Amino acid sequence: MSSTDLVGRLARLGPRRLLLLVEAAASLAVATFQVRWNGRSLSRLLESPSTPRQATPVLTQEQFDRIAWSINAIGVRLPRDPTCLMRALAGRSMLARRGVDSCIRIGISEDSSDFRAHAWVEVGQQPVLGWIRNERFTVLAQIR
């Protein structure tokens, strides 16, 4: 894709989505640092799983979807695809800036014969970012 094509595509997104992409890029950069170079501070955030707090989302499903879209749109264009934990940290950060109380759940797949770990974001008891449809996970830890 030429730089002219890229500029045209970005211009068609509009200013709100463009700002969302910039926010997602910054959030993914911070999350990457937390996971790759500062694991000790990340490990202090881990809690044993508990019943999630009930929360009333202040965002619509479309707004949750746009945040997920922005994280994924940036993530696939990075030299190294961010892990689900990095994406979840970025999503939780973006939700917090909007006043949404969320937590990251970390679990292992119950449906796979291979060991598979995954991280996703929940608001209340509802998965909003990073959930894999039709797959069940046993929650091992959470980050609030």
Task: Chart the SSEs and their pairings.
Elements lengths: L2 H11 L1 H22 L2 H7 E2 L13 H15 L8 H14 L5 E7 L7 E7 L2 E4 L7 E7 L1
Antiparallel strand pairs: 1-5, 2-3, 2-5, 3-4
| Overall residue-averaged pLDDT value | 82
Low-confidence stretches: none
The tally of strands reads 5
What is the makeup of the main sheet? 5 strands, antiparallel
Characterise this structure.
The chain is of the alpha+beta class and 144 residues long. The chain has one domain (3-143). Helices cover 48% and strands 19% of the residues. The protein has helices at residues 3-13, 15-36, 39-45, 61-75, 84-97; strands at 46-47, 103-109, 117-123, 126-129, 137-143.
Structure summary:
By secondary structure, the protein is an alpha+beta fold. The chain is 48% helix and 19% strand.
What are the defining features of this structure?
5 strands; alpha+beta; 48% helix; five-stranded antiparallel beta sheet
